[in-house]
Give the backbone structure.
Amino acid sequence: MMNKHATVSELTAAIRDIPDFPKPGILFKDITPVLSDARLFSSAIDQLTAPHKNSHIDAVVGIDARGFIFAAATAVRLGAAFVPIRKKGKLPYKTIEESYDLEYGSNTIAMHIDALKPESRVLLVDDLLATGGTAAAAIRLLKRMNANIIEASFLVELGFLKGRERLVGTPIRSVIVF
Ligand code: AMP
């Protein structure tokens, strides 16, 4: 019988490479095969939550859109709140915003001004760290909100893009590094 928990190598093997998506030259890491397998999805959330069982996280902040999937499940497991950082124009109440360049294109992200209490212990979660532009903008937003950023966690990190170097000062953890 297969073990209840999947290993990191099983998670790694499940990530599907899609060449030239959404633009020529981009090797897209498709995480949907992890989601569509209950055992793999649960194990991915285990990996994201295990280091933070005793971190007293108040809120898990997820980045639009695939980050929401992992951040929301992580929040429930940790007994923490979930806070979305969305693409500009989607949140209905008053927001603060930050702009950044993406591996493909550029973007502005936004967060509700009342989403976090000052000094909240925050875990930032996204599916993938590429150039680090998205996470750096999210970190700038969180700092403007006076959040206490405990860590930024990613299911996947594209190490060769050196995104970590743009996030100096914030502890970074990735489950899978390519
Ligand atoms: P970056 O700002 O360059 O770190 O890009 C991170 C964001 O873009 C994440 O939210 C990812 O979902 C997405 N992303 C960037 N590059 C890729 C890639 N090669 N495969 C899958 N998603 C990517």
Notes: The domain at 55-177 is CATH 3.40.50.2020 (Rossmann fold).
